[in-house]
Amino acid sequence: MDITEAERAARLKALHSLLDLMRPAVQADGGDLVLVRADVDTGVVEVQLGGACSSCAISSDTLQGGVTRILTDRLSWVTEVIGGVDESMDVEESVSLGVGGYVPRYRSI
Asked: How many domains does the chain have?
């Protein structure tokens, strides 16, 4: 299905507005929600949680139960949400940013 440039712009604007509405809740716990990419033609949206989310025990629940559900419920054109967590931040720094549940990640030697 081909969509017009005006429809593309409207979809992107709605997506950015919705992410801006959700972002403060994530930031309140020291995290962040970032749009990585959005294909408004296919409906695939990729987001990433950062900050304290990298050490939070419920970050996958936030992605699936929160972000994915809200985007697909409120934006009819969204068909898939790909989510990830930015794990590049140091664990201690991540924990200090927020009040989310900390789960240490142990690596086997």
From this structure: 1
CATH number of the domain that residue 12 is part of: 3.30.300.130
pTM of the model: 0.75
CA nearest neighbour of 16 among 41, 38, 49, 48 = 38
For residue 54, give every residue at least 6 positions away whose Cβ sits within 8 Å of its Cβ, in sequence order, or none: 85, 86, 87, 88, 89, 91, 94
Residue 29 CA, distance from chain mean position: 14
pLDDT digits (tens, 9 = 90+) for 43-72: 999 998 888 777 777 777 777 778 899 999
Q: What is the residue range of 28's domain?
A: 5-94
